[in-house]
Structures are given as C-alpha cells and as structure tokens.
Amino acid sequence: MSFPDGERQDWVRYWRDPARPVEAMHAHYVRHAFHKHSHDAYSFGVTEEGAQGFRCRGGAHTSAAGLVMTFNPDDPHDGHAAAAVGYRYRMVHVAPDVVREVLTDAHGPAAPMPLFPHPVHHDAVLQRALLRLHAALAAGEDALTRDERLTAVVLAMIRRRATRSPGLPAAPGHGAATARRARALLREGYADGFSGEELAAAVGSSRFALYRAFRREFGLSPSEYRRQLRLREGRRLLAAGVAPAEVAGAVGFADQSHFHRWFVRCYGVTPGVYARGA
Known about the structure:
alpha+beta; 2 domains; 21% strand; globular; transcription regulation
C-alpha cells in the first residue's frame, strides 16, 4: 500500500512456517487502522518504531518502541497509529496446538494452557526471543532452528508473563449458555447466510437477548464473529494455495472485493501478499 509523495508509506511482509501453523509479519503503518478482529492463535509482537494504540479486553493500550504485545486466542482488538511517524512492528502468530506441543514436551500433558492478563509488557528477554524466532521464519531457517526458537519463545512467555487467568470474570454471565450455543452454530455454518432471527430461534432466544449475551461473552456481535470465522478459513485456504477469487465464495463472502476489503481491514495485508508468504 502506498500514499502520495511526501508521506510515509504503509508496507507489510508476511512469512509462514512450511511445517506447522506459525506465521510472522513485519509491517509499518501510518494510515491503516485495523478493524476490531481476533485471531485463533496466540499473537506475540514487538514494536520497533513509533507507537500503536489499540483497545483490548475493555481497556485502551499503547505499545511504544521496545514493548512486547501478547494476545490470547480470540482476544478482540483493533489498532491504529498513535504517533505521527506511525509504527513499525513484528508479529508472530502461534496456533494453540503448537503451544500445547511445546508445553507437553517441556512439562507433560497436564500442563495448563497459558493465558496472558496484560497485552503490553516491557521485557527485554521476551523481546529478544521473539525477534530471534521472527528472524528464523523470515530467513527460512532449517526446521531445527525454528523448533529451538519457537520453544524458547513459548517457555519465556509462560515463565515470565502468563497466568491462567486472562483478567475476565470467573463465572459466566447471564445468557452465557445461549451465547455458546449460538457460537457452536456459527462455527458449523459460518459460510451460511442465515439471519439474526433464524439464529436466535435456533437457540431459543430473542435477537436482542442473544446479541447482548454474545457480545458480553465473546466481545463481538454474532455477525462480527461469523466474519472472523470466514476470514480465518480464508487464511487457511490461501495458505493451501487456493486462488483468492475461489476463496471468497467458498467461505461465504459476496464477492472477491468484499473478501479483499475485510481481509485488509482485519489483518493489515492483502490476500495476495498473505498467499505468497513462505
């Protein structure tokens, strides 16, 4: 993405581990603003220049140069430049199954999955571990090097920052069961075009009560959550080599331009750039 002469440019590069669901991004943004979205992975980032502002878990946060960001799977968040120069940062996305493998290998099958209560940290050790993993992915290092650096990141995050509580209410709120039934239906039929009335009827609720409970439980409306499911499946298909035009229809978007627009809004990278990551 480029802008008129005299302005800083937005740019992004993307890489994927060829053997498992681990991804890396290096980007600089001035104008781009992320729409509220979430990932089905743990997302770890290092801000290199400038500052990024975002909302996550009900609070406003800023990640300036040298700070580390940690997002749990399904943490809704947005993002925008919080400095005139924009911000440059590196992100690494690690699937929960990969984290589970590392934990099982290190601590046995009973080890609890980590949750991070705070999304921004000042920690030089974590920063170095993340940058080393990012460099291995970007440079196409061999599998042994990637394994070692991934293990170092996961164990460093757990030992230094993670707790079992994400800082959310321990007890489910009123309507939680209804919201979870609706989430299960959305996961089963994310490409379907059923209406809010149909979804509410399927879970035995009014539309208003369902929307309120769903947003309270998951931080997104049902339609926003369905769009996230569609985008996540779109990422998987793109990584598997499916053409963007085919992906759009397969995951339920009206057309390729609609898919392209939401992909950029939520992930800061075009479907084509993402598909070419290797």
